[in-house]
Write a structure and sequence with these properties.
The complex is a heterodimer of chains A (112) and B (111). With 112 residues, chain A is mainly β. Chain A contains no helices and 11 strands. In chain B, 0% of the residues lie in helices and 51% in strands. Chain B is globular and about 35 Å long. The chains are: A mainly beta (112), B mainly beta (111).
Chain lengths: 112, 111
């Protein structure tokens, strides 16, 4: 079966650092993805990890441990515009064009 | 920056009617997808399409659903006989590698 778990909600203040965790149990693994989704809008691609370790992209970093079935998204220097849902997704299939399985998302609220 | 475009942005239809949702993927992408998101719920995979055929589909994608790439630019999702529970945001996505890039979605309301 497939199970992707993330906290439902998190709050933080402007300028702070926040870490959003994701654990997964899937029948296969071919990459973990993080997307940002503002209310009523499309998911926007943030990061992709297929090997263990940290990937850094500006204010956002993503970490993967395949042996633990665990990832996190780290957001630094938080801004009000970072208030959104953050979606963790796993690709199970071995080919690039196969399904992304999404978690329920973590709603992040950033306050001043 | 190239983007996936979807039309219409909103569609209201009566139960039992057919709807066609349209998408123009990013031009050099090879993989095309449809996902849906029922209000307040998670994004769910429907179908993926590669090399002019379905490469994978979910349990949601039953005989009421079909996809087509009628020409070199469009990618459509047809729902033959809509049900109330088909009301959702439908996202088209495309990619040329592991990432999928999403369009802005079509909000389908079945009444």
């Amino acid at each position: 079966g497939q199970n992707i778990d993330q906290p439902t909600e998190m709050t933080a203040t402007e300028g702070a650092i926040v870490q959003i965790n994701c654990t997964y149990q899937t029948s296969g693994f071919n990459g973990l993805f993080w997307y940002q989704q503002h209310a009523g809008e499309a998911p926007t691609f943030l990061s992709y990890n297929v090997l263990d370790g940290l990937e850094e992209k500006g204010r956002f970093s993503s970490f993967l441990s395949r042996s633990k079935g665990y990832s996190y998204l780290l957001l630094k220097e938080l801004q009000m515009k970072d208030s959104a849902s953050y979606l963790c997704a796993v690709r199970e299939g071995t080919q690039a064009g196969t399904a992304l399985i999404f978690g329920k998302g973590t709603t992040l609220s950033v306050s001043s | 920056e190239p983007e996936v475009t979807q039309t219409p942005s909103h569609q209201v239809t009566q139960m039992g009617q057919e709807v066609i949702l349209r998408c123009v993927p990013i031009s050099n992408h090879l993989y095309f997808y449809w996902y849906r998101q029922i209000l307040g719920q998670k994004v769910e995979f429907l179908v993926s399409f590669y090399n002019n055929e379905i490469s994978e589909k979910s349990e949601i994608f039953d005989d009421q659903f079909s996809v087509e790439r009628p020409d070199g630019s469009n990618f459509t999702l047809k729902i033959r006989s809509t049900k109330l529970e088909d009301s959702a945001m439908y996202f088209c996505a495309s990619g040329q590698g592991p990432e999928a890039f999403f369009g802005q979605g079509t909000r389908l309301t079945v009444v």
